[in-house]
Specification:
252 residues, alpha/beta, Rossmann fold, seven-stranded mixed beta sheet, 9 helices, 7 strands
Length: 252
């Protein structure tokens, strides 16, 4: 799939999920709250702060609630997602694959929650974001790592069915170009979702607009086979395990 076609597919899926996103984004909400908790321990400077790939504003809203004097500019390529943000917020419709908008520079804080794995060349993009920080500024990112979805991958291997999930970033690759004194914090967290069956599991991915794949859609018999072989809990339910990395970079 060509790059432009892929970007349009991703954008359309998020646009279609925008109105219902807030009701299904449990993992995104969990890690947005975790980022806000980290911010409480940082010496944050005054100035325009940016949330990159802000979606409906989960993280931006959380930051503004915790720090009432801070106003967060929300940037996303999905117009319908941005429209779900509160009217009083500053919003910029922008494709982050094209770098940052020219007006964004000398920022005290940039955050990004569940965004960079949708971008082309995320390592280069993160470096560019970091360059737009002011001295003493922070860039905080959270994203699923390549070790996510072991149950899904194992089932595909057992059934000889193509794995159609995203290939998530390798944590060390994301920050390989940063000096040790620029890496303020880096840690991995596990998050397990539980569903009655794999059909509800895959529906949950669609509900947040994250179903974009470069693989062919699964046929009914393939889904039935995956349901049969997916590891089951005692209740016959199924899990989906995420490994999420939170990294805080600080500009000296």
């Amino acid at each position: 799939m060509k790059s432009n076609t892929w970007n349009e597919t991703v954008k359309n899926n998020f646009n279609n999920a925008a109105e219902n996103y807030i009701g299904y984004s449990n993992i995104q909400r969990h890690f947005a709250e975790k980022i806000v908790s980290f911010l409480k321990g940082l010496n944050l400077q005054k100035g325009e702060s940016i949330d990159l790939g802000s979606g409906t504003g989960l993280l931006a809203d959380g930051i503004e609630k915790e720090f009432p004097t801070k106003k967060i500019t929300r940037i996303d390529f999905s117009k319908k997602m941005l429209l779900q943000n509160k009217n009083s917020s500053k919003k910029i419709l922008w494709n982050l694959n094209n770098g940052l908008p020219p007006s964004i520079k000398n920022c005290p804080l940039m955050t990004s929650n569940f965004c960079i794995h949708w971008l082309e060349n995320p390592e280069e993009i993160i470096r560019d974001w970091f360059s737009k920080l002011r001295s003493g500024g922070y860039l905080i990112i959270s994203y699923p790592t390549i070790n996510s979805f072991p149950e899904w991958k194992r089932t595909c291997k057992l059934t000889n069915i193509e794995y159609s999930g995203l290939t998530f970033p390798l944590s060390k690759e994301i920050i390989k170009s940063f000096n040790s004194d620029e890496i303020f914090f880096s840690n991995k967290y596990f998050y397990v979702e539980n569903f009655p069956d794999i059909y509800k599991l895959f529906r949950s991915i669609v509900n947040v607009g994250a179903q974009s794949t470069k693989c062919k859609p699964k046929k009914v018999y393939e889904l039935k086979k995956m349901q049969k072989f997916w590891p089951k809990e005692e209740t016959n339910s199924v899990n989906l395990t995420w490994e999420i990395n939170i990294q805080i970079l600080k500009k000296s």
